[in-house]
């Protein structure tokens, strides 16, 4: 327990027994406990972030005194983690200042590293590029005000300008070396913050695209959304919002997008930052007024919602606003669309949409865009007959940490293994894989427009696998085998305890 003398937090300390726990728990254990405390007691988040900033102030001082120019790969990675913590705790510009020095040192290491270190160095540079994108997102959040966005102060501008100039220096250092510039995404987002052109701008990249490009394959399955025909599988880009899922160089990302498009996957779910994508919540009493305002804007062709429950979806419909989907995305330029179908979590493990939302969507001709269908990749052949995962292992993604909790609530790992076994039986019958069956199960509901499948663009490709999901349906026997397992799960209890769709985000 924490003990305070005279009620003063300044003199509070942790007693010896508690300190012994802290001193001896492995780092992963501490992470588990901290995440649990913050989830259970969100009121302590501000104190946690404040304590983090105090610690980082000391760490930053030590870093500034060290010779960054002499850092090896390991030391650079350690300093990179400090910068990430700064970005996450509200110290955006301090984090940018450290990244500005790291990007140059990263290029120096790339130029001098032996062949045996190339793969590690390339991964490091790609992750730094992802950090730069996240840093500019953090800066954007710092600039947000009630009326929109304020301008950079002179000091803030100097920090971003210094980063931009360092990135330009990195480009010059790599000229004629045969090494691709690894900070393309970071260069572009930094230039956008400054309002200047970048050699890595979309216009510049278009000049590198061959003049003859084969026409993309048509989508195997489509659905109607107003006057538009859309494919039934969207590629989700949540993973690009953070290097926590891994990072790839921009050349590989462009190649990855090309692969998706050429295979008929031409729809992508994206947002500037997913934490800010869902800005119109129903706990704001003006949400209907805001939607009506959007509906009256002639630039808005379609309105969708994101993670609305059935009750509030019905309220919107009753207000006279035509809803096509459940996702809201408003661009910063001329608006032609505001998203599409009702976007929400829907899978074999989380089937809450079948309880109430299904009827509302059917009555009002609203389509669902579903995500989480593969539970972050857990519903896959690679997890069949595997032991329960250590969700804080470095190979486990943030998505898997989230969906592992859903699996535990649904019925636990043993029952989940039974589900995977049944899915494997059905998959063998159809000549596909487990993920295909799980996706097909969701797509076969008539009120589902499309499934959003997360794509780690440039790192792993599943376009061929995803394509085999389309063009067929499960039969009654398939659904019966799957239903036998689902009947033994806690799906009804999950609806009662978690509430309707989207309640976990409120």
UniProtKB/TrEMBL annotation:
Could you tell me the keywords of this UniProt record? Oxidoreductase
Gene3D superfamilies on file:
NADP-dependent oxidoreductase domain
* Organismal lineage: Eukaryota, Fungi, Dikarya, Ascomycota, Pezizomycotina
Q: Which domain of life is it from?
A: Eukaryota
Q: Which residues form the NADP-dependent oxidoreductase domain?
A: 289-485
The UniProt entry, under SUPFAM superfamilies, shows: NAD(P)-linked oxidoreductase
Which species? Answer: Gibberella intermedia
Q: Does the keyword Isomerase apply?
A: no
Record-linked InterPro entries:
NAD(P)_OxRdtase_dom_sf, NADP_OxRdtase_dom
What sections of the sequence does the record tag as coiled-coil?
none
What is the protein name given in its UniProt record? NADP-dependent oxidoreductase domain-containing protein
Is Cytoplasm found in the keyword set? no
Which terms does the record give in the GO molecular function aspect?
Answer: oxidoreductase activity
């Amino acid at each position: 327990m924490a003990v305070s003398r005279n009620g003063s937090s300044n003199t509070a300390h942790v007693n010896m027994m508690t300190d012994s726990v802290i001193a001896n728990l492995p780092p992963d254990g501490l992470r588990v406990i901290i995440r649990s405390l913050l989830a259970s007691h969100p009121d302590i988040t501000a104190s946690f972030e404040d304590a983090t900033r105090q610690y980082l102030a000391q760490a930053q001082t030590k870093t500034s005194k060290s010779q960054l120019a002499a850092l090896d790969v390991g030391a650079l990675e350690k300093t990179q983690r400090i910068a990430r913590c700064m970005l996450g705790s509200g110290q955006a510009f301090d984090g940018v200042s450290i990244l500005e020095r790291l990007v140059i040192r990263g290029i120096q290491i790339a130029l001098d590293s032996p062949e045996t270190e190339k793969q590690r160095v390339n991964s490091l540079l790609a992750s730094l590029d992802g950090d730069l994108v996240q840093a500019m997102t953090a800066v954007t959040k710092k600039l947000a005000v009630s009326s929109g966005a304020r301008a950079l102060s002179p000091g803030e501008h100097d920090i971003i300008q210094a980063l931009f100039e360092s990135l330009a220096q990195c480009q010059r250092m790599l000229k004629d070396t045969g090494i691709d510039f690894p900070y393309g995404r970071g260069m572009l987002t930094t230039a956008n913050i400054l309002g200047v052109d970048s050699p890595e701008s979309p216009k510049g990249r278009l000049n590198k695209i061959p003049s003859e490009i084969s026409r993309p394959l048509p989508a195997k399955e489509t659905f109607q959304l107003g006057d538009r025909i859309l494919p039934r599988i969207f590629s989700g880009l949540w993973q690009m919002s953070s290097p926590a899922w891994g990072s790839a160089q921009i050349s590989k990302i462009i190649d990855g997008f090309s692969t998706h498009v050429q295979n008929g996957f031409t729809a992508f779910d994206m947002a500037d930052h997913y934490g800010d994508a869902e800005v119109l919540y129903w706990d704001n009493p003006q949400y209907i007024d805001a939607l009506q305002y959007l509906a009256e804007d002639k630039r808005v062709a379609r309105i969708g919602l994101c993670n609305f429950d059935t009750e509030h979806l019905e309220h919107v419909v009753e207000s006279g606003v035509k809803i096509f989907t459940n996702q809201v995305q408003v661009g910063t330029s001329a608006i032609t669309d505001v998203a599409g179908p009702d976007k929400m979590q829907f899978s074999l493990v989380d089937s809450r949409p079948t309880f109430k939302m299904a009827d509302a969507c059917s009555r009002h001709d609203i389509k669902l865009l579903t995500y989480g269908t593969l539970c972050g990749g857990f519903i896959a052949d690679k997890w069949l007959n595997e032991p329960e995962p250590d969700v804080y292992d470095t190979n486990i993604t943030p998505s898997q940490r989230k969906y592992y909790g859903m699996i535990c609530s649904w019925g636990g790992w043993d029952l989940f293994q039974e589900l995977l076994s049944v899915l494997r039986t059905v998959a063998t019958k159809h000549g596909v894989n487990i993920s295909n069956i799980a996706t097909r199960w969701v797509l076969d509901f008539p009120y589902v427009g499309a499934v959003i499948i997360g794509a780690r663009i440039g790192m792993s490709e599943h376009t061929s696998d995803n394509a085999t999901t389309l063009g067929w349906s499960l039969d009654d026997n398939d659904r019966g085998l799957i239903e036998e397992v689902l009947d033994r799960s806690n799906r009804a209890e999950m609806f009662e305890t978690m509430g309707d769709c989207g309640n976990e985000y409120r």
